[in-house]
Design a protein that fits this description.
Ribosomal Protein L9, domain 1, 3 helices, alpha+beta, 3-stranded antiparallel beta sheet, 44% helix, elongated
């Protein structure tokens, strides 16, 4: 599976620089994407809900609500 490397990283003992597009196994692809080290070319970017856990989303929503109340005051 092809991935575009975002930050310099090592895959299976081989160093790759940011910006390179390389062929990796599906499991390495999932790991690199989950670690934020690579993206899959042509795949849509994940939404914030897909990349954060529920506690983080609750904190984000609370902060946004506070900010909107301050703006109205």
């Amino acid at each position: 599976m092809k991935v575009k490397i975002i930050t310099n990283t090592v895959v299976n003992g081989v160093a790759f620089d940011a910006g390179e597009t390389v062929e990796v196994s599906e499991s390495d692809c999932r790991l690199l994407v989950a670690m934020g080290r690579a993206t899959v070319p042509g795949a849509p970017a994940p939404s914030i809900e897909e990349t954060t856990d529920s506690r983080t989303m609750a904190a984000l929503n609370a902060a946004q609500a506070r900010d909107s109340r301050k703006a109205r005051a």
